[in-house]
Amino acid sequence: MALEQSLAALSLATVSSPDALATKTLIFKPKTAKNAVPVPVLVFALASTETPSKVIASAAGVKEPRLARDDLIQEFFSTSSKEVSIANLNASLAGKIKLLVDSAVLAAEDSILELSTELAKAQLPAKTLVDFINSTGIEVTSVDFAAEASAAPAAAPTQKAEVAKKDKSAGKIEDAKLIGITVDKVKDFSSWYSQIVTKGEMLDYYDVSGCYILRPNSYFVWEEIQNWFNIEIKKLGVQNSYFPMFVSQRVLEKEKDHIEGFAPEVAWVTRAGSSELEEHIAIRPTSETVMYPYYAKWIRSHRDLPLRLNQWNSVVRWEFKHPQPFLRTREFLWQEGHTAHLSQEGAMEEVDQILELYKRIYEELLAVPVIKGKKTENEKFAGAAYTTTCEGFIAATGRGIQGATSHHLGTNFSKMFNISVENPDGPEGSRVHAFQNSWGLSTRSLGVMIMTHSDNKGLVLPPRVAQTQVTIVPVGLTAKTTKEEREAINSGAKSVEQSLRDAGLRVIADYRDNYSPGWKFADAELKGVPLRVEFGPKDLAAGRVTAVRRDNSKKYEVGLTELATRIPEILEEMQVEMLENARADFDKHRIVVDEWKDFVPTLNAKNVILSPWCGVPECEDDIKDSSATKDDGEEAEQDERAPSMGAKSLCIPNDQPTLKEGQKCVRCDKPAIQYCMFGRSY
Amino acid sequence: MALEQSLAALSLATVSSPDALATKTLIFKPKTAKNAVPVPVLVFALASTETPSKVIASAAGVKEPRLARDDLIQEFFSTSSKEVSIANLNASLAGKIKLLVDSAVLAAEDSILELSTELAKAQLPAKTLVDFINSTGIEVTSVDFAAEASAAPAAAPTQKAEVAKKDKSAGKIEDAKLIGITVDKVKDFSSWYSQIVTKGEMLDYYDVSGCYILRPNSYFVWEEIQNWFNIEIKKLGVQNSYFPMFVSQRVLEKEKDHIEGFAPEVAWVTRAGSSELEEHIAIRPTSETVMYPYYAKWIRSHRDLPLRLNQWNSVVRWEFKHPQPFLRTREFLWQEGHTAHLSQEGAMEEVDQILELYKRIYEELLAVPVIKGKKTENEKFAGAAYTTTCEGFIAATGRGIQGATSHHLGTNFSKMFNISVENPDGPEGSRVHAFQNSWGLSTRSLGVMIMTHSDNKGLVLPPRVAQTQVTIVPVGLTAKTTKEEREAINSGAKSVEQSLRDAGLRVIADYRDNYSPGWKFADAELKGVPLRVEFGPKDLAAGRVTAVRRDNSKKYEVGLTELATRIPEILEEMQVEMLENARADFDKHRIVVDEWKDFVPTLNAKNVILSPWCGVPECEDDIKDSSATKDDGEEAEQDERAPSMGAKSLCIPNDQPTLKEGQKCVRCDKPAIQYCMFGRSY
Predict the structure, then answer these.
(1) A270 contact residues in B (CB cutoff 8 A)
(2) A19 touches chain B (CB under 8 A)
(3) Whole-number Å distance between alpha carbons of A47 and B161
(4) Which among A131, A182, B338, B668 is most buried, taking Cβ atoms within 10 Å?
(5) d(CA B43, CA B102)
(6) Alpha helices of B90-236 — where are they, by DSSP H?
(7) Predicted structure pTM score
(8) Residue A280 distance to chain B (closest CA, Å)
(9) Which of A93-102, A390-399, B420-429 has the highest mean pLDDT?
(10) For chain B, how far is it from start to end, CA to CA, in angstroms?
(11) Are the beta carbons of B467 and B474 closer than 8 angstroms?
(12) pLDDT band at B12; cut points 50, 70, 90
């Protein structure tokens, strides 16, 4: 049972607090005699507490506790390892399991605890939780892991390893500054990412699960995307507009294939003030059904075509999967373009024009390389004739990610909504249905940008879209520095600031005297400021500044007289090199695999794959199943963080390797008709 | 009982159709012998059907039917004249009333009818309605008003007048072109307005009641406002951001005074897909309670102040009052700024800076004059220390309208949400709460602009914000025109088009040969294009164009060589004069009234009033009650469209007339402390 439901079932009220203490629930299976009923050990501890299995073993009085497999967890807690938590305890388990609770939890009586499963988080008062545990009547063994651990000799490596894997603190960066990122991008990507986005002040978590606050540092990037895209689509004759966020049930469900894809995620307004609404009203998950009845009304003649409207809005898809900042959120910002054309050629041309604009947003603004291609039948947009896409790649996890999609809807919707005109080229009175497109790019693009460039020091933002492009830090001021020197440095820094502003750059200068330059450097690095400009006594003497690039720490000495030209050049170099580096990464990890035996190993080595493929949907399903990590426990223990999902088809790239004569499908015996890009994905 | 409820109670399913036939429900009281129980006559007809009382009299067999007063309507239909409709019939009325139904309604069996009350509209199939009427068992008299009317001699003027007042077709413009506006702005403002916004393609009605579609013609104006305002607020150090549209019940209700103002209008999401949500989630009616918990988290030290965030979003207030395009809509677009300051002076200074920006948006962009002032205690924003406002005026109805508000919140919210920092100037460890502001401008501003400038030919848009500033129309092409001449005209028009584009103007040219120039003129006038540029044989010969201003039809002859300078000048003149004219109107109708006896008459003459006032809330309530039109029937008959509401205080203008020595309050005997602006309002 999922966390939210469990808590609801227990009617444990959740709360929300920025200071909640993270916790973990671990379930171990001790070594048990054949045929004996195993007695699992459930360990509930602060996430920050090390819980070596040696300590668990002695506290629980068992041998060689190992992380329990799914079947055991199902048997005892009737839920999966992904969803199990302390909230799955119940009276019927009394006597059947052993329960170890971190003494630090019991001591934290007045604080808020955060329960986590792989799929969800929830916060509630420690007291509520302890009362609940006691209410189950299960005997609680309090364990002071810290003390025990230091007392006990080092556990055997394998065991320690197991626990370490479950314990997120494994990814800890040894010398991390307090204000900085404390986990390693490669070792613990998901914790790293949530630190990056929050400490980099891109967003903050919100008390409605799955919703996030876009702070100025990220919203500015979105505004830059909006400004650029608006100019380009207006050149194509697209106009902006705004349609209501609400859609009536009757209308929403008009296009059956289409709504099937969204129905489970639609949020419904059923009440206003204290009165129940007669008809329940949906919040748009996308606006096809909102807009097209009016297209039918407005489009009276072929002269009204093409009709090209775009809107910048937010849509709501109430996913129950684990939400992730920018990538999977219940409300997200996007633009959605909806156009109607007289000729299919015209419509299809636009699909490609828009896809190219999306590629340019990723590559020219966000410095993120993408591959243009077409979705397979399985993966296309519900209701579309075909879907084109820009696919990105997150090197740190080896997973593909859909960047933006441009759909040709054919006449699927225009027939449903009767968007038709008299055929100017047909016989008197004959009518034709409009050919339609819809296309969208969302704030997910910001997540891809962040995951691609950022590092263990914090965010790395491409100069073109960074709210702050340059930060100026006076340096070399010590106790010995004379008042005159100090003034000279500060006023010098101020004039540097001014000349960079005059050059049209977005600059801040950090003159705070209660922070050391080192602290200011770390702060600017955390927030992803592309260029740091230092100005100290040496610089003053030499009539220059020292500039340091955020992405590679490369140092430049720039004369005060050439600031206005040289600094913008450096920023442009950085923008270009960030894209080149990311592209090199993507290219290195996009591997052609012709034979199935190499498929899964290549996938597990954090690559996406280009394989010859037959194009048959069933074969695609088979590839997905066959490439999923089998849940045989052992493997799960070897790398607990490896995504167990199978490889999805990401796209059929426009840019195709040439098929060999008589090349077979990578998976089945049918002949391959094209190369398809497969990968684990977000 | 309100229309929606009535229909719900009858479980009559409503529908939505752009082609619904408007209807009217009229209730008449025949001349009755003293003490005899009156038998009201209910007439249900298509809105377009003339229903002279002469015909009603003969069909119902009664004498001198006159529009019934509220008390009678209450007695028989237990609802007000504002809310009565055919849906208020019920079996208990059988034999007690007479029911006349327009034969055109009975003939319209397959169409959709729109029921209207003064407060609401609803659409349902004619068949459903007829079945319902029959189900009441009330005897129906079918009347062919058209035939009867032409047969019957003209009814006595007074009677005819009465009916005409109720019948919206009274405002009809005689020679209205089919594509144009068919009702008069002064005679029937509300029908005029809904034609203006729809035929001018500013918006379209949407099938969720109270929601509207902003079409490119209006959204462009909003984008111009956004672009201008963003530049100005960023100069003040405001940053844009985006907060979720959802807020949990617990958080929403944290600030009691504040939420009281919104609770009845909050839309609640209770279901996602097929699962009920554990906690119901509100859609923001405004974002104070959404944002401030995070202000408390982010603001750690006085160095984090001021924090100034703005967001462009939509909010939802599920009003049950009669919705009106732009002015009262259940979802609307706005910006909301929320700032926190260390010093109250700093906060209060910003309140004024923002209010001035709002004034400039109205006056410099929308050419709408506004009065800056302060709201009274009764009218201030819930939870604010004080509210400043820009108040506009709609001359056609003589009603004031709130343009935009800038609130100083004092520490009301910062105390509630504990937004506090250590006091840098206070003793060690002492803390101070932040002083906060919030300020907002919505798409309502577009409605004010439209109501102010537009006329019986259609929209009039101020040049600075018009999506299309100039339309070019080739003229003087007849059957006799030679091919060469035709080509010369068209290519000449094209080069005019190009040189105006090069001058940075937003231009369209209308070369369609299936429409006459006259039709094109009317079309451009309807859509509010500020300047029409005609180019015909005479112009070609004289090397000039003929430009015609939309607002006053003033003609200009502009040489081809001076297009790039002269046309922009003309547009600027127009922009300035539109504001001057609107200001003159406002000034003429803002009247100083020192004595109560002049108050209501001045109000009824479509003015707003400046009166010396004591500033006591109870006195304000008294003014409102005492200035409301008494519902004594007679008066209602004299001007059925006069708003019956009383005069609200609009604001205490910053710019005050000087109070006379010992001046008393206009209403009570207390001494006046200032002048206050009162008026009926939107």
Answers:
(1) 268-271
(2) no
(3) 81
(4) B338
(5) 8
(6) 103-107, 126-135, 145-151, 157-166, 189-199, 216-235
(7) 0.78
(8) 10
(9) A390-399
(10) 23
(11) no
(12) low
CB A436 within 8 A of CB A340: yes
pLDDT reported for residue A643? 52
In terms of Cα–Cα distance, which of A262, A250, A273, A313 is closest to B330? A273
* Type of residue found at B233: I
Which residues in chain B are closer than 8 Å to A278, comparing Cβ atoms?
A: 4, 8
Distance between first and last Cα of chain A: 23
A241 and B215 in contact by Cβ < 8 A? yes
Secondary structure class of B510 (helix, strand, coil): coil
Counting Cβ atoms within 10 Å, is residue B504 exposed (0-12), middle (13-18) or buried (19+)?
Answer: exposed
By three-state DSSP, how is residue B443 classified?
coil
* Pair of tokens at residue B65: 């039917």
Place of tokens 């699992």: A40
Residues of B in contact with A268 (CB under 8 A): 269-272
User: ipTM of this model?
Assistant: 0.77
Secondary structure (DSSP) of A454-473: -BTTB----GGG-S--EEEE
- Which string of DSSP letters, residue by residue, matches A390-439? EEEEETTTTEEEEEEEEEEEETHHHHHTT-EEE-TTSSTT-EEEPEEEEE
Contact B216 A240 (CB under 8 A): yes
Q: What is the pLDDT of residue B11?
A: 61
The DSSP string of B275-315 is EEEEEEEEEPSSSHHHHHHHHHHH--SGGG-SEEEEEEEEE
Three-state secondary structure along A504-554?
A: CCCEEECCCCCCCHHHHHHHHHHCCCCEEEEECHHHHHHCEEEEEECCCCC
The 10s digit of each residue's pLDDT in B35-90 is: 677 889 999 998 888 888 888 988 888 888 888 888 888 888 888 888 888 988 88
Token reading at A164: 């370490």
Burial per residue of B40-58, b for 16 or more beta-carbon CB atoms within 10 angstroms, e otherwise: bbbbbbbbebbbbbbbbbe
Contacts of B205 (CB under 8 A, 6+ apart): B18, B198, B212, B213, B325
Interface of B with A in 292-351 (CB under 8 A): 293-294, 297-298, 303, 309, 313-314, 316, 318, 320, 330-331, 333
DSSP A388: E
- Contacts with A214 from chain B: Cβ below 8 Å: 241-243
